[in-house]
Amino acid sequence: MARPRKAEAREDTRGELIEAAWRLFSTAGYDATPVEAIIDAVGLSKGAFYYYFNGKEDVLDAVVGRMVDEMALEIEGIPRMSDLSPMEKINRFMESISSWKLAHLDILSEAVKVIYRDENAIIRYKMNRKALREFTPVLAEIIRQGIEEGVFEAGEPEDTAELILLLSNAMAERQASDLVRREEDSESAQRILHRAQLYLGTMEKILGAPASSIYPLYDKRIEELEQALKSGKVKENGA
Amino acid sequence: MARPRKAEAREDTRGELIEAAWRLFSTAGYDATPVEAIIDAVGLSKGAFYYYFNGKEDVLDAVVGRMVDEMALEIEGIPRMSDLSPMEKINRFMESISSWKLAHLDILSEAVKVIYRDENAIIRYKMNRKALREFTPVLAEIIRQGIEEGVFEAGEPEDTAELILLLSNAMAERQASDLVRREEDSESAQRILHRAQLYLGTMEKILGAPASSIYPLYDKRIEELEQALKSGKVKENGA
DNA sequence: GTCTATACATGGATAGAC
DNA sequence: GTCTATCCATGTATAGAC
User: Which of A98 and A25 is assigned the larger pLDDT?
Assistant: First the structure.
């Protein structure tokens, strides 16, 4: 009977639900988060939830959509940054994506472990696919410029971009699992970096770009990430 | 009250359940298949199901396990086929995997569409990960041989093998969705093949192998697959 | 050891009150 | 537009027959 919080106290109910859902999905997992947990966190009833979303999967799409859109915002201007060379643009692109990821790992040194659990494959999959869709045209444009200027030697820009993104994502997944596992199993940091170099080198070959030209900052990023994971939560996230 | 089939008529109950589960998962999807549907198909009760499996996810693991093991059986001998060159071994490897896939598509020109639906990401993920685990050492051994003989120029064999498998899987996923979509959207066959060449070419670069050396039969395979999809089910699968 | 019958809790969904 | 009350499917667990 206890009536949840009054409506008047609420502003962006849908947004609050998305926020709460993401916090729960990333700490408990998707399947393990009942709709009830989401509404409890916000102080709403089930009916309200189903008023804002078509179902549980719908809120997952909203969560994913919000994150990818944030990323998209950061990268969409890169092709038109006339002070950067194509290679610099690519590095800027990579940098934007991984620093965004780092920023969103604050809530979640724990979350990495959760998100990469089997049952949460659906989250990763939706994220990857949406990111692929939205980022491919941007990266393709950069590649096109590089080909025109003669600094890249690659095939069809769209396909090439897609492949690069695929690799970059696979690398991220691999590195994430490497870093998480490194706490138990102690694989050498050297070995992990070495593996990353293989991926980066492959991207260079695909682009027909010189060795060690892609993402030279990567080593530093990994170090940061490792520090973040070691020291537990980096900072608190209130809302 | 109606008592299902008697026990005496049964031989490999667990196997029957796995079989039925796979048929249902691949036609209706994982989430959309209640445990009840599986036991109905076999003529058993719920208790029996929970006698053989710890839960629904357990039967999915069994399904995936069985398929990957079948594939593993076909490829594990390849590194020791002394009449083949390393490059031939790699092609044999690829061929084995994709012809196995084709063979298991008989039940399922329909299944492709189902398996690639969002909600079934968990099936694909489990499949890919198990395949990666089991196939990497085999492919790595072949690569090691190639490096020793000087026909490949690649880095650490395990990492290289993993990357190749990753690409091969990504290519398969891409091609599957291309071919399925081709029924509505009419993307040119040319474009699809072209995309495949990009993946194969990348694998060659990773191995440091000559162009067009990997999987020259691929074009033919794709044609076969396309025929299979066009003409609906290819053959019936009784048990 | 193998299975039937059944009970139960959970949680996704909906109808309709306010 | 917001929420309460309710329904129902389904995953899980168990007691006990054969």
Answer: A25
Q: pLDDT tier at A4 (50, 70, 90 boundaries)?
A: very low
Measure in Å the smallest separation between the Cα of A115 and chain B Cα atoms.
13
CB pairs under 8 A between A and B: 57
pLDDT, tens digit, 9 for 90 and up, residues B182-195: 766 667 778 888 89
Reduce the DSSP state of residue B93 to 3 states and report it.
Answer: helix
Per-residue pLDDT tens over the stretch A6-36? 444 566 788 889 989 988 898 888 888 888 8
CATH number of the domain to which B123 belongs: 1.10.357
Percent of chain B clearing pLDDT 70 (strictly above): 87
Rounded CA-CA distance A171/A165 in Å is: 10
Separation of alpha carbons B56 and B114, rounded Å:
18
In single-letter form, the type of residue at position B12 comes to D
- The pLDDT confidence band at residue A236, using thresholds 50, 70 and 90, is very low
> What is the domain extent for residue B226?
60-231
Tell whether A11 and A92 lie within a shared domain. Answer: no
**CA–CA dist B47, A51 (Å, integer):** 38
CA distance B167 to chain A (A): 8
Q: Are A70 and A41 part of one and the same domain?
A: no
Total domain count for chain A?
Answer: 2
Beta strand spans in A46-126 (E): none
Please check whether strand D approaches the CB of A80 to within 7 Å. Answer: no
Name the residue closest to the C1' of D1 by its CA.
A51
Q: What is the pLDDT of residue B224?
A: 76
Do A198 and B155 count as a contact with CB atoms less than 8 A apart? yes
Distance from CA of A4 to the nearest CA of B (A): 32
Instruction: Identify which of B33, B34, B50, B36 has the alpha carbon closest to the alpha carbon of residue B4.
Output: B36
pLDDT at B183: 66
SS3 B194: helix
Whether residue B236 lies inside any domain: the answer is no
Choosing among B119, B177, B205, B207, which should be mutated to test the A contact, i.e. which has the most A CBs within 10 A?
B205
Name the residue among B126, B195, B205 with its Cβ closest to that of A118. Answer: B126
